[in-house]
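Quick one:
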Amino acid sequence: MSNYRRYYVPGGTWFFTVNLQNRQSDLLTRHIDKLRAALSFVKSRRPFLINAWVILPDHMHCIWTLPENDSDYSSRWRDIKKTFTRALAQRDVWQPRFWEHTLRNEEDYRRHMDYIYINPVKHGYVSRVSDWPWSTFHRDVREGIYPVDWAGNIEEFDAGERR
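Output:
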């Protein structure tokens, strides 16, 4: 049995990777409406800030910041997964657990934001970040955080790939 321990910081910011059980599936994009409804349902009851999010067919990456005195991201993920699974009327949709990384500083935050947005290009779904529809990249372009033609540096992300 693993001795893995999650790091909980009240009001912290985390990068997450969450995978479907079947890594060949397209449930997340095919049922994007159900995923959005599950997220909205959980977020309305247990608020958190979505700093960035990208949804691919079989997995998703995101950055969340929790409220000042709250560090319970695990129950939010449990509820999102459970609500989505029930909406599909299926079983064994998700891989157990999820991967998280506590963001340490601005550089760490920026690198993970870039990683999230370049991910659909890295996986070959699109050739331009702006062509992927299921990403908060579009919101960040509207807010002036990223230019619409931002392309990142995919080689930078491949060097240390573990997700």
